[in-house]
Design brief:
- The chain is α/β, with parallel strands linked by helices.
- It has one domain: Aldolase class I (TIM Barrel), CATH 3.20.20.
- Helices cover 30% and strands 17% of the residues.
- The protein contains eight helices and eight strands; from the N terminus they run E-H-E-H-E-H-E-H-E-E-H-E-H-E-H-H.
- It has an eight-stranded parallel sheet.
- Helix 3 links the parallel strand 3 and strand 4.
- Helix 3 packs parallel to helix 4.
- The termini are close together.
- The relative contact order is 0.16.
- The structure holds D-xylitol-5-phosphate and zinc ion (ZN).
- D-xylitol-5-phosphate binds next to strand 2, strand 8 and helix 7.
């Protein structure tokens, strides 16, 4: 199995699941983002971390930046919103035509309304949970989402080690999705590397954000292929 077959279509469980690698440009050279995007063209999507310095203690991109990234990127944008007032500002990212928008359950007062607003713009929708947020908080949302993001670090910065204690939640989420027979992608974000990706895939994750693991490599395409193979347990 080489390149993924499903891309942003969603593969049914428990058939053979395609593994998706989404490099995070948080670890890219911000002065050369178009060039950096060109080095990850074999990835399934580029993960764009939007931070507002309130929901997390870091500040990154706004809508203007994401709009430009969308224009120059050779691959779809997977936008991860780490912002307050996401019910109000989240739809502005979907309006840009990005492939997918992820919001944090902790930041939304009206998740069902937000999902509807995001979907009406044509984007896929994902919900994210911080390391200490139990899955019971998103229980009602399974029928409404395309992807569930389990944070495996406290959101805010790249290059942190994966929190081992979050892996039980990856398995719990995988089982919850399988029990419901739903086509929901299961994404992990934070500290994913060639050292641990096989283990995380074995728990049921199928979509992997990798910032420092990809942008810290000299040959990004080679690293993306390696991570994908390891996730498929082929390496
Ligand atoms: C952290 C971000 C991540 C980050 C991951 O808040 O959501 O997407 O870029 O970086 P690594 O893969 O280096 O942990
Ligand atoms: Zn992220």
């Amino acid at each position: 199995m080489g390149q993924t077959q499903c891309s942003w279509q969603f593969c049914a469980r428990p058939k053979v699941i395609s593994m998706h690698i989404h490099p995070s440009i948080l670890s890219a050279d911000f002065a050369n983002l178009e060039k950096e995007l060109g080095t990850i063209s074999t990835a399934d999507a580029v993960h764009v971390d939007v931070m507002d310095n309130h929901f997390v203690p870091n500040l990154t991109f706004g809508t203007q930046m994401v709009d430009r990234l969308q224009e120059v990127s050779p691959i779809p944008l997977d936008v991860h919103l780490m912002i307050e007032n996401v019910d109000q500002y989240g739809p502005k990212y979907a309006e840009l035509g990005v492939a997918s928008v992820t919001f944090h359950i902790e930041a939304s007062q009206n998740p069902l309304g937000l999902i509807k607003a995001l979907r009406s713009q044509g984007s896929k929708v994902a919900v994210a949970v911080r390391p200490n947020t139990p899955l019971s908080q998103i229980e009602d949302l399974y029928p409404e989402i395309d992807m569930l993001l389990i944070m495996t670090v406290e959101p805010g910065f790249g290059g942190q080690p994966l929190m081992e204690e979050t892996l039980a939640k990856v398995l719990e989420a995988s089982n919850a999705i399988a029990e419901r027979g739903m086509k929901i992608r299961l994404q992990v974000d934070g500290g994913v590397s060639s050292q641990n990706i096989s283990r995380i895939a074995a728990l049921g994750a199928d979509t992997f954000v990798a910032g420092s693991a990809v942008f810290g490599s000299l040959d990004r395409d080679e690293q993306i292929a390696k991570l994908r193979s390891l996730a498929h347990n082929l390496a």
